[in-house]
Design goal:
6 strands, alpha/beta, globular, 228 residues, single chain
Length: 228
């Protein structure tokens, strides 16, 4: 059976159910700063982006100037809440363990945050030494730029066309597609919304899954399909 060169997992909203936690805090901070927005709106429109990028996009749209100190405050509040509340997404340990191809993480989060979340939910052994933060690669360009995906592929000597990426956000899917990779959309986290699967497909995901038990079969089927 054909084997991918590399399987790349996003972290937030894919391995751990952290997107909804961050969205609630970010919505609260933006609302208190004068831009009323719900956690659901943040999750649907801005999931996958750094808070700095979310703030800049909201500023541009609303013409409300925000204090730069909001970024540090958001980071601190989200970190604190994640340390106490973050959970692994059901079935993820078994799904990652079943991936026999080389695999890694590409995320817009800081590696320090990724590591403490993975350690808390006992996923760190699967990814130790294979965590790529877009904030820490040479270009420092975050998703939806393709840079972090291409950086990881280069490290693994992987052909992007034979690399699978599992992503929960439109912005992440767009970045992986721009890197020339094949994308599986994931809609099984707490921030998922009506139309989520359709949005990921429209952004370029070849298919979507809601449960981790589906991953192994989907990768096998898509690998066969590309080999045909």
């Amino acid at each position: 059976m054909p084997q991918p060169d590399l399987v790349i997992f996003d972290c937030d909203g894919v391995l751990v159910d952290s997107e909804i936690i961050a969205a609630r805090i970010e919505a609260e901070l933006l609302t208190s700063a004068g831009y009323e927005v719900s956690a659901e709106e943040i999750a649907e429109t801005y999931a996958g982006l750094t808070f700095k990028d979310i703030m800049m996009r909201v500023e541009e749209k609303s013409l409300i100037p925000f204090q730069a100190s909001l970024i540090d405050r958001a980071e601190e509040m989200v970190d604190r809440k994640l340390r106490s509340d973050v959970r692994a997404i059901d079935g993820v340990h078994e799904a990652v363990a079943a991936v026999t191809a080389p695999h890694c993480i590409c995320s817009n989060s800081r590696s320090e945050r990724i590591e403490f979340m993975l350690e808390k939910v006992q996923l760190l052994p699967f990814f130790a030494g294979r965590i790529f933060s877009a904030l820490e690669i040479p270009s420092k360009k975050t998703k939806p730029a393709p840079d972090v995906f291409l950086f990881a592929a280069e490290k693994f000597n992987a052909n992007p066309a034979n690399t699978f990426v599992i992503e929960d956000s439109v912005h992440g899917v767009a970045g992986a597609k721009a890197a020339g990779m094949r994308v599986i959309g994931f809609t099984g986290a707490g921030h998922s919304y009506p139309g989520h699967a359709d949005a990921l497909t429209e952004a370029g995901a070849e298919t979507t899954i809601r449960r981790w038990a589906e991953l192994k079969g989907v990768i096998a089927a898509l690998s066969e399909w590309s080999d045909a």
